[in-house]
Write a structure and sequence with these properties.
The strands form three sheets. Strands 2-1-3-4-5 form a five-stranded parallel beta sheet, sandwiched between helices. The longest helix has about 80 residues, at about 110-190. It has 15 helices and ten strands. It has about 425 residues and is an alpha/beta fold.
Length: about 425
């Protein structure tokens, strides 16, 4: 800290000499002036280096009150002390009001009191200056901190945006890779172009209809795109062959593809939930499916949804039974499998999405095999429990065929219902 500078102003030389002697031992830098005008010139020359002014009240041309008022206006940081030898209350009050003095000292003064007053005034000034410096420093640092925080927020936002874009690119690339892979699977199968995408889209729509959470619907979608991945290793003759035209050995090979599809994808952590759905997408609600013979709610819900979506598209494309069905016919066949091949809740959600169950023509009849008569015409496909097409719509029944149907019902041990149009006279 620099040595404090004190300016003493008095028109009496002996007073100035006395003040010099008084302050010499203190080490303060001392300046003197014989009047107010001279003191103002000296203060201007010092350029704010003066810490404290001691001024006499009674001086010619410019009294102490006027001088100290000028000091307050031009250098408000200087501490102002008034010396007065008169019991003039009005002058002292004027000095206090106009000059806003720190203290006034009566002549003749008490030297220890003067020294104590000056020391306290300088200490207070130093504290105020330090306080002002710290406040200014704090304000400046706060502004710098605000600017830094703003910069950091911008950087964080920019980085977050970069990460978001990178994540979106990665996710898009991931789905694109899966779609490309699904297309390659379909190219291997020959006649199934677009099948995987349609199954995936329908499966996700059914999941949304059933209010499944987003991750579950996403797993169904991925499983739909890749549900035939296990068919890549199948022999060419099997790929385009409907299941109802395969022999026992071929069916044995074909039915391994769901498990092989799961095995192919389990190494990828992101695809493990979808891989489990792929394994079970040929399970049946009545337990007659494969590869594990699961039944009812033990089959993962996503797999139950995928089973319906896969077979609905197969009915439309003709890959399930060798015959293409209209949407109305396919919905009717799905409905017939409710509670047997398919989860009833999944069927209901599917029908709600697809426009409901088409009405059966009023002229058709639902008959047991024992009630069939030669000449009747099938109004709907006759499908076995295993999903094999036994007889196609519009097939004309003959007496020998009716006996075969009745024998088949007895051998299966389950009741058959055939929708037929009556014989026209």
């Amino acid at each position: 800290m620099s040595t404090p500078t004190i300016l003493c102003v008095d028109d009496e030389a002996n007073i100035l000499s006395a003040l010099r002697r008084l302050f010499r031992p203190t080490g303060y830098r001392l300046l003197t002036a014989p009047g107010g005008a001279e003191a103002l010139e000296l203060l201007t020359a010092e350029q704010g280096q003066v810490n404290l002014v001691i001024s006499d009240m009674r001086m010619p041309n410019m009294d102490g009150a006027q001088f100290l008022a000028r000091v307050r206006q031009q250098w408000p940081g200087i501490v102002r002390v008034l010396l007065t030898g008169y019991a003039d209350v009005d002058s002292t009050v004027a000095a206090i009001n106009e000059g806003q003095i720190y203290r006034y000292i009566s002549k003749p003064w008490n030297e220890p009191e003067v020294l104590l007053t000056v020391r306290e005034a300088l200490e207070r000034q130093a504290l105020e200056q330090e306080k002002a410096r710290l406040e200014a420093l704090t304000a400046r640092q706060n502004e710098e901190l605000k600017a830094l925080n703003a910069g950091l927020e911008e950087k964080v936002q920019a980085r977050t945006q970069e990460l978001h874009l990178a994540h979106e690119r990665l996710k898009k690339s991931f789905f694109t890779s899966i779609q490309v892979f699904a297309n390659l699977i379909e190219l291997r199968g020959g006649q199934m172009a677009g099948h995987s995408r349609r199954v995936a889209d329908l499966g996700r729509r059914i999941g949304n209809q059933m209010s499944l959470e987003g991750r579950a619907c996403n797993d169904i979608f991925l499983a739909g795109l890749l549900h035939d991945v296990g068919k890549i290793g199948l022999p060419d003759p099997l790929l385009g062959k409907p299941a109802n035209k395969m022999n026992g050995e071929e069916l044995g090979v074909f039915r391994k593809h769901p498990a092989k599809g799961e095995q192919a994808l389990m190494a990828l952590e992101e695809l493990r939930p979808a891989a489990r759905l792929i394994r079970s997408h040929h399970e049946r609600f009545d337990g007659q499916g494969y590869p594990d013979g699961l039944a009812g709610l033990t089959i993962p819900l996503g797999a139950r949804i995928l089973a319906l979506a896969n077979e609905y598209d197969g009915l439309l494309q003709g890959t399930l039974s060798g015959k293409r069905h209209s949407e109305e016919e396919a919905r009717q066949l799905i409905f017939q499998g409710k509670g047997k091949r398919y989860d009833p809740a999944v069927v209901d959600a599917f029908l709600a999405l697809s426009g409901g169950l088409p009405e059966v023509q009023s002229e058709s009849l639902a008959l047991a095999p024992a009630d069939l008569k030669p000449g009747m015409v099938l109004a709907r496909d006759l499908i076995s429990r295993d999903g094999v097409l036994l007889l196609a719509t519009d097939y004309v029944l003959e007496e020998n065929l009716i006996r075969q149907i009745q024998d088949y019902e007895r051998s299966e041990g389950s009741r058959l219902v055939l929708h037929v149009r009556p014989v026209k006279n």
